[in-house]
Write a structure and sequence with these properties.
Layout lengths: L2 H24 L13 H10 L10 E2 L9 E5 L1 H13 L4 E5 L2 E5 L2 E2 L4 E5 L3 E5 L10 E5 L2 E5 L4 E4 L2 E6 L3 E3 L21 H10 L20 E4 L2 E6 L2 E3 L12 E6 L2 E4 L13 E6 L2 E4 L4 E3 L4 H7 L3 E7 L2 E2 L2 E7 L7 E11 L4 E8 L7 E14 L3 E6 L13 E8 L2 E5 L1 E6 L6 E7 L2 E5 L4 E11 L1 E3 L2 E3 L7 E4 L5
Parallel strand pairs: 1-3, 2-4, 3-6, 4-7, 5-10, 6-11, 7-12, 10-13, 11-14, 12-15, 14-16, 15-17, 16-18, 17-19, 18-21, 19-22, 20-23, 21-24, 22-24, 23-25, 24-26, 25-27, 26-28, 26-29, 27-30, 28-31, 29-32, 30-33, 31-33, 32-34, 33-36
Antiparallel strand pairs: 8-9, 34-35
């Protein structure tokens, strides 16, 4: 896809969303209630702590200096590696600047104190030959650790790493490359993803969970792993094999101004997993799965690692297609706490849910202290807010999911199937959901509210009428505290 087409699509979508926001604002809304959420002072403190790394501009290196040719045909993997090594050795670190043209490469492995800067008229195109992405590296796939195919851009145990610039990162995935790895083996053997899940449940050491050449576990696009001080800014990501941005066990992460447009299977936009202090702001998501999905490990691996994701701010982002706008789960065993979502816009019939939580009795994670304010939703295909304990394995497990504390303030929804779809367990109710100063212009069907305690409405309007409880005709089951 040409760079100009990508930028035109971004401007068109942002313009259309602005129109939807303006129309909703003209429709009026609920008069503000007293008692605004005081937790946002905590969000301000988190934001002050998150500081992106900085790099000496004088220490500048290019792939051309090391034999790279931007012709879209000559493999530049070695040139990138040499430029990154030189930048890392420079006093205070340095920048690898990609200037103009189309660069074909295998995996790019960053080092500490290195910024990869992709200029506006540049495309880094990742080669389709899987053999280039081995030997295996430590990575994580859907919440389970393994030694597997390298992410396209990868950093392990680094400090001060960045990917910046207004250029394009092109994974070249399509139905015949990478995405076709979702198919079952023709010989009927165990799928690699199923084998990984089995090995993790059996607690096989990670060093022995080796998935080498010939395996069909797809690579992540960008994965900083156990890194501190990470910046990903302004780049455009297209045609990803799997999840696009996947920080794992990272701290002090800034993801800003990124455009993600990729509609393949499992094409999550940004999935911080087992991370602390994360800022995602002013990004555009147009994806084939959840736009943002906050995670913390899956089942036995999540319980082994015991690493929650905490202190996450999502601000000023725009969401088009996807399963969920801002999602927590389902690989959530380590827990998630202190998530703040504000000033975001969502609008697409292909966006299923605005705010989505996925958990079950096999995961058993704790989700708590979630705060949402000033979110405008033009339309979503299903519920505006979903909390689902029946996702995936559902009740088939020995671990109790916990959800406590969601406050949604000043959310305006133009059109949705229903406002709420809340499905807890009788022995593990969803607790403390608070809607404040919210307006839903058109909800077609009654809510689903099953095993919920502490659901409160404060100055909420639905279909032009004040709402004081679940909508008439809602499927409501009270929480059973006897179990």
């Amino acid at each position: 896809m040409p760079i100009d087409s990508i930028r035109t699509n971004r401007r068109s979508f942002l313009g259309g969303t602005c129109c939807a926001v303006a129309i909703l604002s003209l429709g009026g809304g609920a008069t503000a209630a007293s008692g605004a959420d005081p937790a946002w002072a905590e969000a301000a403190a988190i934001r002050r702590r998150i500081r992106p790394p900085r790099f000496p501009r004088a220490n500048r290196f290019t792939p051309q200096q090391f034999g790279g040719v931007p012709d879209g045909r000559t493999l530049a993997t070695e040139a990138f590696a040499k430029a990154i090594a030189a930048a890392s050795r420079a006093p205070g670190g340095g920048r690898v600047v990609v200037e103009g043209g189309v660069w074909l490469t295998g995996p790019i492995h960053l080092r500490s104190n290195v910024e990869l800067h992709v200029d506006r008229d540049s495309i880094i195109r990742f080669a389709r030959d899987p053999a280039l992405y081995f030997p295996p590296v430590l990575t994580r796939m859907e919440g389970n650790e393994l030694m597997g195919i390298s992410p396209f851009i990868y950093a392990l145990d680094c400090e001060n790493v960045a990917i910046t610039g207004h250029g394009v990162l092109d994974g070249q995935a399509d139905r015949e490359h990478w995405w076709n790895w979702t198919r079952s083996p023709a010989d009927g053997s165990e799928r690699p993803g199923a084998r990984l899940k089995r090995l993790a449940e059996e607690q096989v050491p990670v060093a022995k969970r080796v998935f080498g050449p010939g395996s069909t576990i797809r690579p992540q696009f960008i994965q900083p792993y156990r890194c501190r001080n990470v910046l990903i800014e302004n780049v455009t990501i297209i045609r990803s094999p799997m999840w696009e941005i996947h920080p794992v066990e990272c701290e002090n992460v800034t993801i800003r101004g990124v455009t993600i447009s990729s509609h393949g299977p499992n094409n999550d936009g940004c999935d911080p997993e087992s991370c602390r202090d994360v800022l995602i702001e002013n990004c555009l998501f147009d994806t084939g799965d959840d736009c943002i999905a906050i995670k913390s490990g899956r089942n036995a691996d999540g319980r082994r690692l015991k690493r929650p994701t905490e202190n996450v701010i999502v601000s000023g982002c725009t969401f088009a297609d996807g399963h969920g706008g801002v999602t927590l789960g389902s690989e959530i065993t380590g827990g998630v706490r202190n998530v703040f979502v504000e000033n975001c816009r969502m609008d697409s019939p292909q966006l299923n849910t605005a705010i989505r939580f996925k958990n079950n009795a096999a995961r058993g994670g704790t989700l708590e202290n979630i705060h949402v304010r000033d979110v405008t939703v033009g339309q979503v295909g299903r519920a505006a807010i979903t909390i689902d304990y029946n996702y995936g394995e559902g009740a088939k497990g020995a671990y109790t999911p916990v959800f406590r504390g969601l406050t949604v303030e000043r959310m305006v929804v133009g059109r949705c199937q229903r406002v709420l779809d809340l499905q807890g367990f009788a022995h593990a109710p969803i607790r403390d959901i608070r809607l404040v100063d919210c307006t839903i212009v058109r909800a077609a069907e009654p809510d689903i509210v099953s095993h919920v305690e502490g659901l409160r409405y404060e100055n909420v309007r639905r279909n032009g009428e004040a709402v004081t409880g679940p909508t008439p005709g809602a499927a409501v089951e009270p929480a059973d505290m006897s179990g």
